[in-house]
Amino acid sequence: MTGAGPATQAPPRGPGGAPGRGRDPDKARRTVRDDRPITLTGLTVKVVLLGLVAGIALWAAFPLIEAEAWVGLGILVATTAGLFYLYLSRRHIPAKYLVPGTLFLIAFQVFPVLYTASTAFTNFGDGHRGSKDEAIVAIQSSSVVQVPGSIEYALSVATTGDAATGPLVFLVTDPTTGTVSAGNADGLEPLDAGNVTVNSAGKVTAADGYTVLNAGQASARSQEITEFAVPTEGGAIRSAGLSRAYEGKATRAYDAGCDCVRDADSGKVWTADPERGAFVAADGERLLQGWRVNVGLSNFTRVLTEPSISGPFLETLVWNFAFAVGSVFVTFALGLLCALALHSPRVRGRTLYRVLLILPYAMPSFAMLLVWRDMFNTDFGLVNNLFGLDVDWMGQPWSARAAVVLVQLWLGYPYMFLVATGALQAIPRELTEATSVDGATPWQSFRRITLPLLLVALSPLLISSFAYNFNNFNAIYLVTEGGPFPADNPSVGATDLLITYTYRLAFGAAGAQFGFAAAISIFIFTLVAVISAISFRRSRQQEEVYA
């Protein structure tokens, strides 16, 4: 009789007891696949969405090819191929849900932040939008004057898009040859005679691919038409009214030898300054047309060192903090007071009172801010008439600041009332009852038990409210527009926040300074991020104490 040999492990069995292949359980957990059958609805949705992705990719590919942006084209192709692989495969189920959110995060959060940060290190703005070559063309075109014997054309003003906002195009008819050409910022391009309609006076009345403006539409854009110029060799075509144009001669020309611009009439010379992206004369005069260059940290140092900016900036920063902290404090205090008053079961009609208290929260803040602005009017405002006051609310710095805080109190306390009501209902009544048994007064019970537990629950909301009010553009711009403004500095008002100051720099009448505005935006982002991080850290420590 032979002894039993060593035990052997039976091979794994597949379905029906058939031997199956050994599987690595860790690998099985790592590879997630969906073996459910695809329904007709699911298949239709997948086809439509992937078709939309393919269409968007094709639409984006042609401009990239035209601009020879091969890196961008490669990213586009790789992203599109990755999406098709992901959603045509049954594997990688978690990624199917994570990828869309990640792409939207990159497109609408990460990319704008990075673009803003990169803009902060440039002089991008009015007069510094394009390249150096474009600046030279603009300088020469703007100096064009009509000279005796210059060619005059019959002119029709057109656009390549909407009549009110589309890019301007000059449709000109040569008086000698009858040739019709289309002129834009890049130059003249002859048009096929079969694609245009010309009247007896030589004016173009219709052209394929262009919208010819009528007299009213052209008059509405007369300022743009007057400033518009079509560059030609040695000069440019400019308008002389709305029906005639002339080809003039440029009085200023670029000299590549000295990298400068010379004025033929006065002999003045403006030399290129690569650090400032502009042509500058020996006396310091700078031509308006410049080009975009990297200026390093100059936008940031300008905020702190330039006297005309650093003083108003620091004053605005102090008021910005005061407004954000004050708005959070007063709205939280009033909202908590209302929540505590209606938390008592002895109050009758609590539901009705709560509905009435949240009415300001249900109304559009945009409209309410405009209403409050009129209520603070000195002459016919409700506030002065109701209380018999004669206060120029918007004319004095401190009264205007008080007005915007009061407006923010009315708009913000319903939100604090709602969150405080919810947090109070989550606190066990046994805690407050135990303190009363121990002989604590209602104030001691509130200060030692209720308020700390409320702050643990509401700290993240208070931090987010601070961040919101730190950049509360609407509350300032719609009520005071940042005013009142000092007589010697119309760019910064007494109630301006950094965000409204940045807006005025970027889009103000004095000219856009996008690079400088982006630098201030980085300051705002850094301040809010640091304060929020510190506050969140302290709130976590508080949670550990009361856990």
What does this structure look like?
The protein is of the alpha+beta class and 547 residues long. It has 19 helices and 15 strands. Strand 4 and strand 5 form a beta hairpin. Helix 9 runs antiparallel to helix 16. It is globular, with a radius of gyration of 34 Å.
* DSSP summary, beta strand count: 15
Q: What quaternary form is this? A: single chain
Residue share in helices?
A: 40-55%
Number of discrete helical segments:
19
Report, as a whole number of angstroms, the end-to-end distance.
Answer: 71 Å
What integer value in Å does the Rg equal?
34 Å
**Secondary-structure content class:** alpha+beta
Principal-axis shape equals globular
The chain-level mean pLDDT equals 87
Approximately what portion of the residues adopt beta-strand conformation?
5-15%
Low-confidence stretches: 1-9, 14-18
Largest sheet: 9 strands, antiparallel
Please name the defining characteristics of this protein.
single chain, 547 residues, alpha+beta, 12% strand
Task: Please provide a brief summary of the model.
With 547 residues, the protein is α+β, with helices and mostly antiparallel strands. The chain contains 19 helices and 15 strands. The strands form 3 sheets. Strands 1, 2, 3, 4, 5, 8, 9, 10 and 11 form a 9-stranded antiparallel beta sheet that branches. The protein has a 4-stranded antiparallel beta sheet with strand order 12-13-14-15, covered by helices on one side. Strands 6-7 form a two-stranded antiparallel ribbon.
